[in-house]
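Issue 218. Parser rejects a valid record. Input:
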Amino acid sequence: MSSSVHFPDADNFQRQADEFLAWLSQKPGVRISPKIQVTDLRGQAAGRGVVARTEISDGEELFAIPRTIVLTVQNSNLKDQLPQKEEFENLGPWLSLMLVMIHEYLLGERSAWSAYFRVLPTRFDTLMFWSESELAELQASAVVDKIGKQGAEESILEMIAPIVRANPTLFPPVAGIPSYNGPDGERVLLELAHMMGSLIMAYAFDIEKPEDEEDDGEDGYVTDEEDELPKGMVPLADLLNADADRNNARLFQEEGFLVMKAIKPIHQGEEIFNDYGQIPRSDLLRRYGYVTENYAPYDVVELPLDVICSVAGLASADPDAQPQLKLLEDLELLDDGYIIPRPSAEDSLTDILPDELLALAKTLTLTPEQLLQQQSKNKPPKPVLNAPEAILLQKAVQKRQSQYATTLEQDQQILAGLKQAETSGPLEGSPRRQKMAVEVRIGEKEILQRLSAMFSDFIANNAGQGAKRSADNSLEQSRQAKSLRT
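Output the parser choked on:
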């Protein structure tokens, strides 16, 4: 959901949408249902959206876009015009699409996708574009370490910049700079690359490919947890806003087409929503540049390894210096941090604590003799939760709470003030970003507070008793899964 200031020509907002639909409709093979329309939703801080003109049935086709019209590396002419064939092929799916989009964007009206670019935002609230002071509003949130801006810029300057600079006719300099050399040229090129990377992150869809093709992601715009399939910018599909609760449409990949279909009845006047899946608001902000309360149930908090080691009395979190950690590292069960989801009313601690975290807590509470026994068997302890592990993990939770600069209660007061300011008009710029950061850290602090209370109850009610995982092979499954990811 984009703010109105994110679009380059807000005064011609609706005209651009009309021109885009006219351009798309005349493309061979495109099918757009007369039951939908693109609507100006800037008054709701949602940019454009797609709304039902009339009743739509479950399973009904909303639109179909031929694969040949999708903005992809394969469909652009750039691959045939570049002399640096090998360098281009070595870019991987993310950087190659980024380069293609820079090329097509700089072509302006000469690009086959010029009308498409005019309806895409040029400014973003994704974390890649936040200042240091704005990022500081996220406090101890682990999402700050997932931004990857430095790594992204290193990849851009090392792999994309040489190709751009060597081909000025394919990548004409923007107004105001003679070339992409020098400090000014480098700055503009990085801005262009970040803009395209953010468009890919926020709007691109995974495009199916043969199963035997695998590619690595690029730092800053894809993480280990995210899909590494090639991406494609699908005209019209990316104009749908997303909503976890009101999701009523889904994109299907069919032979020769990408088809958006209703997945439930949609009433006249209702907005048509895609869904990003069950992702926490921190990742919603990082990847898409906004947060909504609908994604609060999917919030998570991370317990860093160094925090757990600190409360356990270890001098460091270095496996080479700590035999307990070395045992788990050798078994591929040691992580830098452990993700804990927001507990539901029915969840117990063993429902939400990862197996690897329980194994770590158990290992850190072993006596020296017990540790030697586990080392001799080359096996981790079973994932059980007894009072010693619960006490250790509660201390880690409380230390994590202390790493945030404000309390949950203070944040709730800050958020109330920002919401009050919002009554006179949508927040823009730093105030908008501050509000989103406060919402993210409130979610994380709510989880930490709930965890601490759950540990207190467990310690009081289960002293001397263990809560064992039902599946003893769960750690082995985790180890195998990790092995497949690396």
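Fixed in the parser; the record now loads. Residues 210-219, 222-227 have pLDDT under 50 and may be disordered.
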